[in-house]
Design goal:
Layout (H helix, E strand, L loop, with lengths): L3 H11 L2 H16 L13 H10 L10 H14 L16 H17 L1
Helix pairs in contact: 1-2, 2-3
């Protein structure tokens, strides 16, 4: 059981219960699909990892705006050393599974070239 005061701090840090829940759920999905954890420690489950990552300011939920997308693009460029990152055309109404499929497809095409 998570301490109620810890939860309140988490909700405040994320901007509310809904935003915290969305961020935790998204991060758990990434972790269960094999994403690297961003915090050290002996955590028993992905929920504990996600909460610790939020508390240590390793992850945050950002609004889907063109400005934020541009910031993310720049960060990816830094992380990839300026190498070309494959682009995928994605309609706005795509499901998360469809987005993941398109990203993987674009990445596989780039490694084949």
């Amino acid at each position: 059981m998570i301490d109620p005061e810890r939860l309140e701090n988490l909700f405040e840090k994320c901007g509310g219960v809904f935003r915290a829940t969305v961020l935790i759920q998204m991060r758990i999905r990434e972790l269960t699909k094999g994403a690297k954890r961003l915090v050290d420690g002996d955590f028993r489950n992905p929920i504990d990892i996600a909460i610790a990552e939020i508390e240590q300011d390793k992850i945050e939920l950002v609004e889907d705006t063109e400005e934020n997308r541009e910031l993310i693009r720049k960060e990816i460029e830094k992380l990839t050393g300026g190498h070309r990152v494959p682009q995928a055309e994605v309609p706005l109404e795509s499901s998360e599974d469809e987005l993941e499929r398109r990203i993987l497809s674009a990445l596989s095409k780039d490694t084949e070239a």
